[in-house]
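TL;DR need structure tokens for one chain.
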Amino acid sequence: MFNGQPLFQTYHSAAARILTALTCLVAIATPALAQQPDVRVPNFWDPKAVHDRPSAIPDKIQFLATDDYPPFVFRDPQGRLTGFNVDLARALCQELGSSCALRIKDFDVLLPALDEEEGDAIISGLSRSRSATRRLNFTEDYLKLPARFIVPAQAAADFDEQALAGLSVAVETGSRYEAFARRFWPEAEITPFETVREAREAVKSGAADAHFGDGLSLSFWLPGQAADGCCAFAGGPWLEPGYFDEGLAIATRASDPERAAALSYALRQLYQKGIYRELYLRYFPLSFY
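>> reply
TL;DR here they are.
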């Protein structure tokens, strides 16, 4: 069981944009919604692969995280710790039969805390590409964050992302989404906006034909009041290597490869048993895949 208060920075800006919408959407993520057949749940594991249970299973796992990373780890209106990563960590420990705790730290001190053995594993969106994390062991990715198009709702069925000639695509200035769009859709009219909000509003107002951006934050914007039913996902998801392929994984110390291996095994088991699907639909009622 978790011990409460003593239970990532790559995606913190997106997290801040969706905190308000998340509070409402998690509350309405009903079982009926989870049963909709057209909801896409991502799979990052080979369903035909057979993996033996590791011989070395840790007796306990002390996770480290920060609590300002919605919808992964955050506090609800009553101040209680919740989120996708919180429930995922709990499910991983239950699968392994390990005792479990989650300790909250500021993001900047997560790595020192791991080094000083204040915890055993960081579940907080650390990027593998950072020089400071290259000495760590990582599990397999448990979630990737794709790019997606949104278009006016009435245009979604006819949208063809391979035929963008003459269409205006709103993007955030200087973002990887702008760089990708300019490289792969040179025939489109790429229209940069200073903020993501302005890029989305351009589609809502009809000033742009589409917006290309972060699928996760868009999945909370689309059903919210700001969108007002204007738009829908179309095409995608895009996970192009070098742009959108880096995913979320759990990090352990370099001296602790057995714990990372055990967690990777447990992640695969959770997917095969349908537990991962249940958690995904609980926190992402509008799939961004």
